[in-house]
Amino acid sequence: xxxxxxxxxxxxxxxxxxxxxxxxxxxxxxxxxxxxxxxxxxxxxxxxxxxxxxxxxxxxxxxxxxxxxxxxxxxxxxxxxxxxxxxxxxxxxxxxxxxxxxxxxxxxxxxxxxxxxxxxxxxxxxxxxxxxxxxxxxxxxxxxxxxxxxxxxxxxxxxxxxxxxxxxxxxxxxxxxxxxxxxxxxxxxxxxxxxxxxxxxxxxxxxxxxxxxxxxxxxxxxxxxxxxxxxxxxxxxxxxxxxxxxxxxxxxxxxxxxxxxxxxxxxxxxxxxxxxxxxxxxxxxxxxxxxxxxxxxxxxxxxxxxxxxxxxxxxxxxxxxxxxxxxxxxxxxxxxxxxxxxxxxxxxxxxx
Length: 352
Hints:
Elements: E1 4-6, E2 17-30, E3 33-46, E4 50-54, H1 61-68, E5 77-84, E6 92-93, H2 99-108, E7 110-113, H3 117-120, H4 127-137, H5 142-155, H6 160-164, H7 173-185, E8 191-195, H8 203-220, E9 223-228, E10 240-245, E11 248-254, H9 255-260, H10 265-273, H11 312-316, E12 322-325, E13 328-330, H12 338-341
Parallel strand pairs: 1-3, 4-9, 4-10, 7-8, 8-9
Antiparallel strand pairs: 2-3, 2-5, 5-6, 10-11, 11-13, 12-13
């Protein structure tokens, strides 16, 4: 797809933009050619919303999130613009920040929660030291910050005394992940980027973590970008869902609409393929074919080699975005026929 341009459609009491991403492309030079892992993507993210970025592994979700913090590692090359709009102050050109300003931005304005909590902690330091060093590094009041840390840990149903005195390996996976969330919030950022934060946890703990995230969002009014391959996991969490395939977005809309009445055939196939408690086992099926090679993405619609609706037009022409309704868009010429071609059930036999 030559350009993915998705703009805010969420119905909300506030439609204030906090992030504006324009024409972002991320490329890596390789011996066999240029690998494009984000393909000319544009998007607006609203203040205080929870937006889910969903797709298979390798679809570009994490790389897209990294551009919001200018955290694409070398030799990756990023083009385009990422603008952050603080609640007070002038807009920030994120990709133009110097190293010092970027370090401040990444913790005090936008924080990241990675999937592997254990890898995010220094195993030789207890948890209290992690919090204190973070506060000291950013010139924050340590006593006030630690008081906030205890409040956050308590809200995440952790015993502050036990957790702060422990070393990372002494905490369970779920405790580590909740502690990492608390650490990311200790400097009171406006945005949290969560990259598969429940990926290493069992189903019960996944649901528990998403419930806690919803509570934190409600209390602190933070904007959350939640990256996952599991669409049903964020059914009750996200305001909007953006589905990513082959390094570009293919569908965006209110979470309920995308989940219950997915328009793009890939979104529908993904709902059938990801193990979850909302789809009958007998209806689950893998998506046939392979995800595109970032060095040689197919011409036309990137999904056409795996799509049951593909025509010669799809193989030759970029579909661009089509309005499904007033709140939703899908990059598919044949989205009106996708329900008949790829059926799925989430919670009842009549919901397709």
